[in-house]
Amino acid sequence: MTLHLPITADLRADERALLERIRAGDTSACALCIETHTPALYRLALRVTRDPDEAQDVLQDAFLSAFRAIDRFDGRSSLSTWLHRITYNAALMRLRKLRRQAATLSLDDEQEGDSLEEVLPSPEPEADALLQQQETAELLGDAVRQLPASLREAFVLREVESLSTAETARRLGISEGAVKVRLHRARRALREGDVLKIDVGVRFDGYHADAALTVGVGQVSANARRLIEVTQLCLSAAITAARSGNRFGDIGAAIQGVAEPAGFSVVREYTSHGVGRQLHEGFSLPNYGQPGTGMLLRPGLTLAIEPMINEGRHQTRLKKDGWTVVTIDGKLSAQFEHTVAVTDGEAEVLTAL
Predict the structure, then answer these.
(1) pLDDT tens-digit profile of 32-52?
(2) What percent of the chain clears pLDDT 90, i.e. is strictly above it?
(3) Rounded Cα–Cα distance for residues 140 and 137 (Å)
(4) What CA–CA distance (Å, rounded) separates 184 from 255?
(5) What are the helix (H) ranges across the chain?
(6) What does each C-alpha distance from 281 to 172, 189, 293, 295, 303 come to in angstroms?
(7) pLDDT given at position 107
(8) pLDDT at 140 > cutoff 70
(9) Between residues 260 and 73, the one the model is more confident about
(10) What is the rounded distance in angstroms from the CA atom of residue 169 to the CA atom of residue 296?
């Protein structure tokens, strides 16, 4: 049965009540959800696709997917974060579809002077960085669990989910001044301007997966943002090179080919690796190398590809605690990682959100 119940001011402010109405099939609540979240989601889709028509299509697909899956929304993140994740994935799927179509075009069909990069838009690194913050609220909460609960809640709401100070105060039931005090204390623990790397290993049914990402803490420098963006591009290039018939050196060269022209360096002491029954198994895969060298990639091979890129020199050192690794020159470092399976075609990313 389709419901058409009135929208009240309380409903606009109560996310839980709105979700209950959506789950009950109330079209008015669905319309309110679309009205509330469309501006931000459209901006996101437009940043990724760079095409207004494609962005509108992505938005429609995202809301349809969200409403179909609404019963599976568990509330561990905000509705806004969940919708952002769905929209971002929908935008990436649209881009992949367009690229597959573009790849079938003959050179004769392309306009003179056009390249695929000019004809087909690519996601902007800024959009990727933004989504990485919003998609990983739960992971970041785990990473800062050493903070007192009150500081952690304020930090995640304000810095990860990008809520305003006023909205954060409303969610926590405290004053805006109290939010600022808690943020100040949390930032002192994490240090404003740092980059935070979150590396997660999971074991399920006897198999392991390994994934990592890097986010900025508060306001970071332009070079720190660029380091994060370039490192993410390194991972994308490595995954593209992880094809049957290629070799380990092709993956390492792909990473170097992105990082070094950008003015950054590739860590040598720590590498990508095999993953399966053990978290680290079988072999090491350097994140640097020469094309056409090293172990041959075959279908069924699973790799944890994790480029570690430094702002300065590539060397690192181990601190006295026997665990913490820092750059030798004290500059920033970033890391992204996915577990991928080599197939007969494109590598399958097993840890994609």
Answers:
(1) 888 888 888 888 888 777 888
(2) 33
(3) 5
(4) 37
(5) 9-13, 15-23, 27-49, 52-68, 79-103, 116-119, 125-135, 137-143, 149-155, 165-172, 176-190, 222-241, 248-259
(6) 44, 35, 20, 15, 9
(7) 44
(8) no
(9) 260
(10) 55
- Looking at the whole model, is its pTM more than 0.70? no
- Length of the chain measured in residues: 353
* The residue to which tokens 């568990």 are assigned: 74
Is pLDDT of 246 > 70?
A: yes
Instruction: pLDDT band for 97, please (50, 70, 90 cuts).
Output: confident
Quickly count: other Cβ atoms within 10 Å of residue 148's Cβ.
Answer: 11
Provide the residue ranges of all domains of the chain, joining segments of one domain with +.
9-101, 133-190, 197-349
Largest pairwise CA distance in the chain: 66
Distances (CA, A) of 341 to 23, 99, 178, 200, 223: 37, 21, 47, 18, 32
The pLDDT of residue 130: 41
Instruction: Dig out the tokens for 20 from the structure.
Output: 């209950």
The CATH fold assigned to 133-190 is Arc Repressor Mutant, subunit A (1.10.10)
Exposure of 44 in the CB half-sphere (CA atoms within 13 A): 27
CATH topology of domain 9-101: Rna Polymerase Sigma Factor; Chain: A (1.10.1740)
pLDDT at 11 over 60: no
Q: Are 37 and 55 in contact (CB under 8 A)?
A: no
19, amino acid identity? L
Enter the DSSP assignment of 351.
T
Q: Please list the residues that pair with 308 across neighbouring strands.
A: 335
What is 197-349's CATH number, 3.90.230.10, 3.30.200.20, 3.20.170.40, 3.30.379.10? 3.90.230.10
**301: CB partners within 8 A, 6+ apart:** 274, 341, 342
